[in-house]
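This entry is listed below:
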Amino acid sequence: MNSYKEQELLIVGCGKMGLSHLVLFTPYLGKENLIVVEKKFLMRCVLFLLGYKTLSSLPKNTEKFSNLNGVLIATPTNSHYKIADWAISNKLNIFVEKPLTLDINQSRDLMLKAKKANVYDQVGFVMRFVPAFADLKSIIISEKLGRVKNYIASMRGNVITPNTSSASWQTNRDQGGGCLNEFGPHLLDLCRFLFNDINAIKNVKTGKIYSGNADDWVACSLEHNNGPIGKLDLNWCDESLRKSVVKFTIEFDEATLYVDSSGISLLDKNTEMNLNDIIQSVSEREYNVDFYLRGEEFSLQAEAFMHNSNYNIKAKKSHTIKSTANFLDGLAVDELINNIESNKK
């Protein structure tokens, strides 16, 4: 794998996701081309000893970073707007972890400013890049199984437990916490990506289990503008799970499928349909990535950002370019979250 010395990337925030992105982007761009903005002194010391350039805060201007091409924002959601606005004003390409912001007016403002400045913008809806979901998208488009009639979509995990601190940002909606802000963006975006735009949200129910100022579970129905009706199930206090799981049960005209990150299976028992043949005939994805970490979907997402923002990385997978989510998608998901919040019971 080659490194490209002429282009730098600024990574803002080095918590769990920021550190993950840092490790992922290093083989592609090289340590010498990555600059980390991190408030914690100890973390900066560790990164400096590992060979990375570090800053304690955003630079007032980017003149001394003549090769800076993009900014990756992996800070708490309530800081996204300020950092993204700074990046746009400096004409830098932007990758923002989900959700885009906690305020739809701020999300709309960023979307409009990025468009006007003609910078590339991407939101970290990584589930779009999971191969099984990419295959499902191809099946839906092909109509090999007919049209989608309805579906059940769930994302469950064991994130918040009785031992979670009440002072944690995860249990505070105003700081970007809560199941709806953490699990919701992934699943809502995936439903939009697979089944097209959502024009109505109904039957919203929410509840707390361990959190004080945020919901731990959310259920609602989604009505899509092209016909399908879905049921959404979010819960991040499911003690039966070791890690978070996203899964779908989808009823087509001619078959019913079960899909999760591990693959696609046919639920109809009395059928001679060959699902593998259908998948192979419509699939556009490739499994190979140049660097693997946490799952190929994270590498595909990173390659898409580098390819689309001219980091001399060629994304070989045709579905990768089609799967990227921009600020318009981020705004749409933020509006859906706002809708759910406004209609919860």
